[in-house]
Write a structure and sequence with these properties.
- The structure is a single chain.
- By secondary structure, the chain is mostly helical.
- The chain is built from eleven helices and no strands.
- One of its GO terms (cellular component) is plasma membrane.
- It holds the Pfam family CopD.
Amino acid sequence: MFSGPPADPATPTMQASSVPSAVPPVGEMGDISGGASGATPARRSWTAPLLLGAAGLLALLIALFGPGLMARGTGELRIPGAGLTTVLRTVLFAALALHLGELVAPQLIRPVRGRPRTAVRSWAVLASLAGAAAAAGQIVRLAAVSGLGITETYGTREGGLLLLIANGLVVAALCAASRRPALALAPLAVVIGAEALRAHPEAYSPEFGAALTVVHLTAASLWTGGLLYVLRTMWLWRGSPVAARALLGRYARLAIWLYVALAATGTASTLRRLPLDVVFTSAYGRTLLLKLALMAVVSVLALAARRRMLRDTDPAVAHRLARREQVVLGLVVVVSAILTVVPDPHWISLRP
């Protein structure tokens, strides 16, 4: 079913070297409306990298210092190396999103009539290898914190699951580099299942929590990674606004169902894991409130992009709004990583 990006063998894929120097290369997601000649395109070519760099720096700072800030004044136990763990988890979640997005988004592209016969470069191999390195880094950190050797760490529950995640992502990278990239679906499914089990070591209904996480993580990865792939493709198709608009419309219809899945599983997970009396006094509760606020921003941007897409034949404004949605989704990924690091809020609820 999934067979990678729909490129025409007779037409070479556009490379960065074939793009004029005044235009950002594929993947930087500039404004698809183009621009007048002169200094404006040059300014735009600098604006996108600067904004991406600023967003990346902000995400790194949130990951490093977010767990400590959220736990300040709660009386909860300090998690050793929480900032570094959050960074590694963020890389892992981003890798899943990028790879899953590249597997699913091309299925939205194929039915688009009049689409250009070009495809964006694949980032799946690099993404999965980065995710594998992040999982390996978590194993090393776990060994250092627990005082165990690497081999002994593999024997622990968390260490064994992290090893499975790392190996699964390596296999996914090998599949992505092969002629059958769709085979990566199997190891990626194993990775998601292992991460769901790792995230729920608690004694109260861990199987139910893991099942919710499988659905939630899959939907979040498809939303984030799929949107990125669609935006990159729209930039590549900037000379075919009708096809670009049709592609964004197809993604928007898929995103509705992903949003429903995220809302349902997120609500169930919250009711299951977060006691109401510690919503504002636990790191988990505070982080969840921040995530909900960011998701509200994402929802507004997504609705605005859909409205402009339905109203305008030129998809430039909708593309711009969707790019902003993508940036906020990136912050949601970081905050979600923090949620997996902060302490379980149940113990603070049970304190006398």
